[in-house]
TrEMBL record:
The keyword Transmembrane applies. Gene3D superfamilies: Outer membrane efflux proteins (OEP). This is TolC family outer membrane protein. Belongs to the outer membrane factor (OMF) (TC 1.B.17) family. Residues 167-218, 364-391 form a coiled coil. NCBIfam families: type_I_sec_TolC. It comes from Bosea rubneri.
Amino acid sequence: MTETIVLLKKSASRLALVCVLGTGLAAPAVAQTMESALSRAYSGNPTLNSQRAAVRATNENVPQALSGYRPRINASADIGASITESSIPSVPRNGTFHNNNTARLNPRGVGLQIDQNIFDGGKTRSSVSQAESQVLGARATLLNTEQNVLLDAATSYMNVLRDTAILNLNRNNVEVLEEQLRQTRDRFQVGEVTRTDVAQAEARLSQAQSQAILAESNLKTSIARFRQNIGVEPKQLSPGRPVENLLPKSLPAALNTALTGHPAIIAALHGVDAAELQVKVTEADLYPVLGVRGIVQQRYDNTLFGDNRSSATAVATLTIPIYEGGQVYSRTRQAKETAGQRRIDVDTSRDTVRAAVVSAWGALDAAKAQITAAQAQVQAAETALAGVREEAKVGQRTTLDVLNAQQELVIARSTLVTAQRDRVVASYAVLSATGKLSADTLRLKAERYDARKHYDQVKGLLWGTQVPDGR
């Protein structure tokens, strides 16, 4: 971690400021860019890869549901030994005696049974539709996860830039105050200032050192988050720029885009479809079931030694449920209540998305206004500091006035850095809130993950335990 911080500290204070502000300073050839960081997060973030695996697992619900249309085939075989002893009394002329017989058999056989569903009350059809809705919902959830991961990565990127700049500002402030303290002590030696002026300079230097330590701690935290979200340590980061050119032109347009196409809302709608289909799947257990069963058997030594019998039967079966203790009725009512809950979840998702859009849009507008105000604040603070220093030379200002002016300038520059960071992050937040923050929208140079590819590979599989990647 220390080595990473050293690499980040190599740039001067002005360079750190420019990197956050994104004013167009040419970045070093080896610098990390926002695009490369987001591409790496898109390709290797564990949270995103986990959700992709969840989508692949959900895809398997479709072939499982389709199995209801297919026959069930079972083979059987048996072998055994049978010993039968019999004694039959006989009455000849000279007396009674018994005929004793012993029969030894080795009964064995093989069989094949095929069960084919003909009608199951629509349970299989509803199960297939439900599985397909679950797949579409999982894809929408994946898109929402992609948005969250990219937003976290962009935020981490800008946090490192901000905290690097603030650390450099605070360290530069420490150097300035050290020089200020030296000059104050020299003036004290010749009687131009009092001991109080020296103490004030010492106190302000200690405060600046404390702020520098805190800034370094914040940078370490941001570096750790960067590593967590993007997967590598930050080196020299190029300027981060807002993506306002990708945003809707107005807040109403942003709300319309979000409420009609946000992945979280789409996922919730597919959740309603799946829940309503679950009601039909459960109700199907109350309907008759019609099927056909075919059995083929071959038996040896079944009743007599050496006998050989073959049989084949085909039977249509009709099962009509009469009463099952009320379980199916309860499960049906439960499924209906769950469907009602999912409808409420859609309203919750819409309200959440609406609030996120309004909040992010407001944060973006506020950041823009703060930048303008902070730029004016920095200019005024620089002018004030220069004037106070000149006035202090002729005795019109005290040491405390100079220290206060220096502190105000540091605060103004830190405010500007933070406002610039907030503008970039807020622009990504608006894009995420509208449901458009994706690798395609950002045109990231990363291989796209196609969720439909795995679905097409497994949908029609009839057998096999290997997944498409060979495991």
